[in-house]
Amino acid sequence: MAEGRMRAKMYEIVKAEKLTPDVIKLEIKAPQIAKKAKAGQFIMVTPTEHGERIPLTMADFSPEKGTITIAALEIGKTTKELGTLKAGDKVFSLVGPLGLPTHLHNFGNVVSIGGGIGLALMYPVVRAFRQSGNHTINIIGAKNEKLLIYEDEIKTVSDEFYVCTDDGSKGHHGFVSDVLKKMIAENKKIDLVYAVGPIIMMKVIANITKPHNIKTIVSLNPIMVDGTGMCGSCRVIISGETKFGCVDGPEFDGHAVDFDNLTARNRRYMPEEAVSLKKWQGAK
Amino acid sequence: MADEPQQPKQPKKIVPKKYPMPEQDPKERIRNFNEVPIGQEAQTAILEAQRCLQCKRGPNRKVCMDGCPVEIDIPVFIKQVQEGNFEEAIRIIRQKQNLPAVCGRVCPYENQCEGLCVVGKKNEPVGIGRLERFLADWERKEMKKGKVEVPPPTGKQVAVVGAGPAGLTVAGDLAKLGHKITIFEALQYCGGVLVYGIPEFRLPKEIVHAEVDYIRRMGVDIKNDFVVGKLETVDELMRDYDAVFVATGAGLPDWTNLKGENLNGIMSANEFLTRVNLMKAFKFPEYDTPIRAGERVVTIGGGNVAMDCARTSLRLGCKESVILYRRSDAELPARREEVHHAQQEGVRFELLAAPVEFIGDDCGNVKQVKAIRMQLGEPDASGRRRPVKIPGSEFLIDAQTVLIAIGQSPNPLVPMTTPDLKTTKEGTIAVDEEGRTSKKAVWAGGDIASGAATVILAMGDGKKAAKSMHRYLTQDQSWPAPEVFEKLSCEM
């Protein structure tokens, strides 16, 4: 018996758009999730019946339109498969909103820092920081100008806005961390730092803020299976204690995270990921 | 048959042993995920049924059905099998049992119905479990799959949270009484532990899907991908439903908390089994979810879940699968049949040994388990003899994969998001003998109320709760006083 027959629901894509050659943005009809979603939360997506469950951050959600928006870096088989989807196509399974939302409060001056695909998640978070009355200082970065995503959206919710590129094609020539270091050196008042992006970026940021005792929140992306606290695939070490990224996170105190363990754990299926990708590319 | 003359009573000569259940050869089956027992033929089922003495229950006489948590009329259905009336036999089972093909496979019959079988006092008991399985399989193959007749609607709406054994039982029982049921399930498929936990070779998923389909054909509405506590809380559900049954299971894996447990290659039994069973990683790369066993897999624990892990590892191609258990063979909590199957398949039992530390390589992968020998001391609170470390007896076992199968705790999501739902110290939802919780119109059952137990006990909980819910929905809306639950939450 086809298992698909045992399921009534499928989720329709209303809009598909390439943000860069390797980043897909999908707006998907999911009225109940859209109604409940909050900044910082994620969803589990299974593109097809044979697919794997992967966590993707929500880049936006609209209770009015009944849609959520996800953005994914097309890096492995599953995300590349998502990259082929068009408006009208359907995804097999969508679960959310999962994880704890970003803790919102009027902290004062909030410096939010995003890199690469992390910028997609950064947008709803900084929007929410601003709605909570914070002075939002946003630093965004990518390898080059063409890979900057959500630039305009983030700009509209920024009180101060900085762009960095590794190759200098736009804004500051260098890393997002350079801008933060400069702010700290200039004694700028910073009440909270929020960082989302590559693990190495978040680690660097946390190392910069730690000696200055600046509270730093990072949003982690461990490998998940169910995403609801059942399996522990996503366990991360926080101040020496095991926590689950999916239910205790995805946001944690950046000064308490064992980033090296996270890096190692996220590499554990690399050989299989390569097999899966090769098979898919061969079949295409 | 009724008008045939009564046979004169004669002492019946009982065939001493159960008719054999054909099984896949151990050497063959460790290379595939197909079911181990192949199933019996109709003729064998009839012969097996004829071993039954048709005992009557009495006040001082316990018989098979006294051991059945869902109170199946066992002698009555067996009588029908004796006469070859399979359709009537399965109808009788279905009056009480919503998942016969499942329970005919995973119930611990030896401690329940078969444990009380009178034939079993001197011989092997009647194979009640395999008869149930035979009938359910016969039904699935032979009977058409139309709408299942239910009584006219009562107008009452019930929300069931979780489509595992307890939730499906409540849904089936209440649908049979004409209530409108909606099941909310977090995963993409229904069945709970039946689909994510129990392996394909013990319980083919196609069978679970067919049982769920039967419940759906009773008019039960199922919403998958719906995480109650996230998408809607129990309080929000109560705006639309007259009663709620919470059966969210024991999904939270327990850890050893030993040094090195977060190394790559070490995972919870839940992660390992979910990858393999729910996500079908055993068919990778046809299915996208990966799994890797490596040369040697060490499973920590001695329960059914540990046996499932050890046997699954063999099928994933590991050269050696080792069970590390801190007590001796006699205390293994797994069913004897599971232990036996594991032994047949070549699982190595490293008994009276417990892990002390996990040792990794330079890349953060586990390479060895450091363990210590144990001996049994005085009995502890559970009545089992307490394992005590033997000083200086540490030893190393090489392992590329370590599976932690030492238990699960209640899923905290619903209790956390339902403020007035009282819980016990263990995190289970406090319930009275009918499954009622501290929150009016909310019942709970299965592992979320009892802690980690068995499929059939969860179904028994569901059955009790369904009776109580039906009474509440149709007659009597009284509810126990808050003090009852105060007491329950302290006691347990």
Shape of chain A: globular
What integer value in Å does the Rg of chain A equal?
A: 19 Å
* Gap from first CA to last CA of chain B: 52 Å
Calculate Rg of chain B over CA atoms. Answer: 23 Å
Helix content of chain A: 25-40%
Strand order of the largest sheet of chain A: 6-1-2-5-4-3-7
By helix and strand content of chain B, what is the structural category?
A: alpha/beta
Q: What global shape of chain B is seen?
A: globular
Q: What would the average pLDDT of chain A be, to the nearest integer?
A: 94
What is the ordering of alpha helices and beta strands of chain A? EEHEEEHEEEHEHEEHEHEEEEHH
Q: Please mark out the parts of chain A with pLDDT under 50 across 5 or more consecutive residues, or reply none.
A: 1-5
State which percent range the strand residues of chain B make up: 15-25%
Structural class of the helices, strands and pairings of chain A?
Answer: alpha/beta
Number of helices of chain A: 8
Major β-sheet annotation of chain A: 7 strands, antiparallel
Distance between the termini of chain A: 26 Å
| Protein chain pair with the most extensive contact, residues per chain | A-B, 47 and 53 residues
Question: What's the story with the biggest beta sheet of chain B?
Answer: 5 strands, parallel
Oligomeric state of the chains in view: heterodimer
Number of DSSP strand runs of chain A: 16
Low-confidence stretches of chain B: none
Description:
The complex is a heterodimer of chains A (284) and B (492). With 284 residues, chain A is an alpha/beta fold. Helices cover 27% and strands 31% of the residues of chain A. Chain A is built from eight helices and 16 strands. In chain A, the strands form three sheets. In chain A, strands 6-1-2-5-4-3-7 form a seven-stranded antiparallel sheet. In chain A, a hairpin with a 4-residue loop joins strand 4 and strand 5. The N terminus of chain A is likely disordered. Chain B is 33% helix and 16% strand. In chain B, strand 7, helix 13 and strand 8 form a beta-alpha-beta unit. In chain B, helix 2 packs across helix 3 and helix 2 runs antiparallel to helix 7. Chain B is globular and about 65 Å long. The mean pLDDT of chain B is 93. At the A-B interface, helix 1, strand 7, helix 7 and helix 8 of A face helix 10, strand 5 and helix 12 of B.
